[in-house]
Specification:
This protein is α/β, with parallel strands linked by helices. Strands 10, 17, 18, 19, 20, 21, 22, 23 and 24 form a nine-stranded mixed beta sheet that branches. Bound molecules: zinc ion.
Length: 572
């Protein structure tokens, strides 16, 4: 319908023939109707090498139609055109977060917030305040706590919260999602006591008497998580609406979501209602690979707003929980090298799921953080290529685009494999300035040198896609850009950058957060740069990013977010 309207506009435009400069600077006559929206007085950074910089752009319907100088774009303005003055601010393609847990993040907006709790007292006080608003037996959920922030890095125990949650079970996630704290009521509902053995791939933390402390690592978290009642569709919809509002506020027009069936239904419902303001690439659990396979779904299946066809698996845990898997022991825990995720066991189990999925044209994205986990997945991809042969062709833009999620601490000898096998490094720059506070305590300086190795990966020809892992890190992409170009840890101890040789340029970081992420979801011909013909997903910032000192990037705010030609967010 939209294209019919545009076509009609072109046909009825009265002598709207003007000279428009297209990419490469060639002057070509173009007949066109007026733009619906023009942005001018902008520092347009296009992420399109054929025209990297511009001052204005014109949007018709949901597409970018022209990018150029103010003189060139003036011809697109007619009485019906909305004109936005960017006041010299940077204009970028809408950000695309390549790894979010959208429902977790969205739900947290209305749950207990412990991300900035730094003492036991504060932890308890916040849980108490939240529990007060609940009915008896309703779950206390949320968390995002980080014990590294507590005095002496004390691990919280159920005693911290039992007194304030006598009538409510509680489950509070550690910020990395690899550990959680249950209160006594929750342990009771889950049937976890001193006689419960550690499940494979998980640990029940215990006190000196052998009783569970309430903290459960990796697979052990599942013991409690499976007794938490799922949210109703109404609760889920309410949470996702709040998440979309947050995404608009920070300039995100696309997210790649670690999704499950209930929220995918809600995304479709919100799309039908005209409420979806970010495009979703839904990455579903690899354990369920047979469902899309039998339905004939391949990577990137869907429409401009909702796509799927990617599968997420886990190779290991996290550095913070000492479960990321390394070849050598942890420096501060010499008894362990980390853990394989349960999906990797027994040996070859992941391959048994990934190989048929790949053969069917589905995309594989595996979480791997420690050097051994990353190496194992690269080896598995190589094995799949050997067994399955060339990728199933689905047209010129398609192919096999394997991903590894996080890629935090890799062997320098594995840089090449990313480019050689075409594996996308889907990484979260904010984690580097967060974990960088204490990572060397865990893995030492030598291993840190190839941690968050953006520079080395790019120099070896690997493709980067940037995101946050929200709610593990804040959703705001500007914090990610700041982290990528400064590597300045949150504790202020590395103002020149933690492992500064791995910094990348602002232009490279922006590309990873836009075109790189689009590539990771097979949509680089539709979005990721401000190129005529692509979807009009645009963000206007309140500063000229390339002119301000790098440390100021984290303070930059989004002024407007435009998704599919529609202004979906305006500051104040
Ligand atoms: Zn994640």
């Amino acid at each position: 319908m939209k294209s019919a309207r545009i076509l009609a506009g072109i046909l009825t435009a009265t002598a709207a023939v003007s000279i428009v400069s297209f990419a490469g600077g060639a002057q070509v006559p173009a007949a066109h109707g007026p733009a619906d929206l023009v942005i001018y007085k902008a520092k347009v950074h296009t992420v399109d090498p054929s025209r990297p910089e511009a001052q204005a752009l014109a949007i018709v319907g949901d597409r970018i139609r022209a990018v150029g100088s103010e003189d060139e774009i003036r011809a697109w303005i007619a009485p019906g055109t909305s004109v936005l003055d960017a006041h010299g601010g940077t204009v970028l393609p809408g950000f695309n977060d390549s790894h979010v847990h959208f429902v977790d993040g969205s739900s947290l907006l209305s749950q207990v917030h412990l991300a900035d709790a730094t003492t036991r007292e504060e932890f308890t006080r916040r849980v108490a305040a939240y529990a007060k608003g609940l009915q008896k037996s309703q779950w206390v959920l949320g968390g995002n706590w980080d014990h590294e922030k507590f005095p002496g890095a004390t691990m919280p125990t159920r005693e911290w919260i039992d007194v304030v949650t006598p009538d409510n079970p509680a489950w509070l996630d550690r910020y990395d999602g690899h550990m959680g704290l249950a209160n006594t009521a929750a342990l009771k509902l889950a049937g976890v006591d001193r006689n419960t053995p550690d499940p494979p791939g998980g640990t029940i933390l215990r006190d000196a008497e052998g009783n569970p402390t309430g903290a459960l690592k990796d697979a052990a978290a599942g013991l409690v998580e499976r007794v938490i009642p799922p949210p109703s569709e109404e609760q889920l919809t309410r949470a996702i609406r709040a998440g979309l509002e947050e995404a608009r506020r920070v300039g995100l027009t696309s997210v790649q979501d670690i999704s499950h069936a209930p929220e995918m239904r809600v995304y479709q419902k919100l799309l039908a209602a005209g409420e979806l303001t970010a495009r979703f690439y839904c990455i579903t659990p690899i354990q369920g690979y047979e469902a899309p396979l039998h339905a004939g779904i391949t990577a990137g299946f869907g429409n401009d707003w909702i796509r799927t066809g990617a599968l997420k698996g886990f190779a290991d845990g996290s550095l913070g929980s000492t479960t990321a898997l390394f070849f050598e022991p942890y420096n501060d825990a010499p008894g362990t090298r980390g853990l394989f995720n349960a999906m990797m066991l027994p040996e070859g189990h992941m391959l048994q799921m990934a190989q048929p999925a790949d053969a069917a044209g589905l995309q594989i994205a595996i979480h791997a953080i420690g050097d051994r986990a990353i190496h194992e997945i690269l080896t598995m991809y190589e094995e799949i290529a050997r067994r399955n042969g060339p990728p199933r062709s689905l047209g010129p833009a398609r192919g096999r685009r394997w991903r590894i999620e996080h890629v935090q601490h890799l062997l320098a000898s594995d840089y090449d494999a990313f480019a050689r096998l075409g594996v996308i490094a889907s990484m979260q720059p904010y984690h580097a300035i967060d974990d960088g506070r204490w990572a060397e305590k865990r893995i030492g300086h030598e291993r840190a040198k190839s941690s968050y190795a953006w520079r080395s990966l790019l120099d070896h020809g690997a493709k980067l896609a940037f995101g946050t892992d929200w709610p593990v890190a804040p959703l705001n992409p500007l914090l990610g850009l700041y982290a990528a170009v400064t590597r300045a840890t949150l504790d202020g101890r590395h103002p020149e950058g933690w492992i500064p040789e791995q910094k990348i340029t602002l232009a490279e970081a922006i590309e990873a957060y836009t075109l790189g992420s689009a590539y990771a979801e097979f949509t680089e011909t539709q979005k990721g740069s401000l190129t005529p013909g692509k979807l009009a997903d645009v963000v206007i910032l309140d500063a000229d990013l390339f002119r301000i000192p790098p440390e100021k990037i984290k303070e930059v705010k989004v002024v407007k977010t435009i998704a599919g030609g529609r202004i979906v967010y305006s500051a104040d």
